[in-house]
Specification:
alpha/beta, Rossmann fold, 4-stranded parallel sheet, two-stranded antiparallel sheet, 19% strand
Length: 156
């Protein structure tokens, strides 16, 4: 009689172990689903680049932005506003727009500011000019994407 009792105790211990592993697996699946829903529910950031005569730094800056958009966890839409640049900024932007997904607006500064005021909440505005280096432009963009309220000297 002692042997079947030990076997029965062993089987119940094994059943309890399997049940706890199944419960843990269900907990993990549920947690992963909740994390996925939270990421989808996050609102996208709208990064608004306001450019004036930036043809010298524009190509490397745009490639950096597209790399950042595809490789990182930043979830952002890109809006580029050209404020009547006198150099080849608009031409460069139009060539980039053929192959990449972003909004391009060529506008005088008054209309540009009126449009930016309508963007509420998740809009990050970065103003760049021909005086900015590539390094300072990257720094302004990263500061804006990390949620700072001051980016490029303007309140976003």
């Amino acid at each position: 009689m002692v042997l079947p009792l030990k076997g029965w105790v062993f089987l119940s211990w094994l059943n309890a172990l399997l049940a706890s592993l199944a419960a843990y697996f269900l907990y993990l699946v549920h947690s992963i689903r909740l994390i996925g829903k939270a990421k989808k529910a996050r609102r996208k950031i709208v990064l608004v680049l306001v450019l004036k005569d930036t043809a010298d730094i524009l190509e490397s800056l745009m490639w950096d932005l597209f790399r950042l958009q595809s490789w990182s966890n930043f979830n952002f839409h890109l809006v580029v506003v050209d404020r009547e640049s006198r150099d080849d900024t608009l031409v460069i932007l139009k060539t980039f727009q053929r192959k990449n997904d972003f909004y391009l607006i060529s506008s005088p500064s008054g209309r540009c500011l009126a449009m930016m005021r309508r963007l509420k909440g998740n809009a990050r505005i970065v103003e760049l000019s021909g005086l900015d280096s590539v390094r300072s432009a990257r720094k302004k963009i990263l500061v804006a994407l990390h949620g700072s309220t001051r980016a490029g000297g303007r309140i976003a």
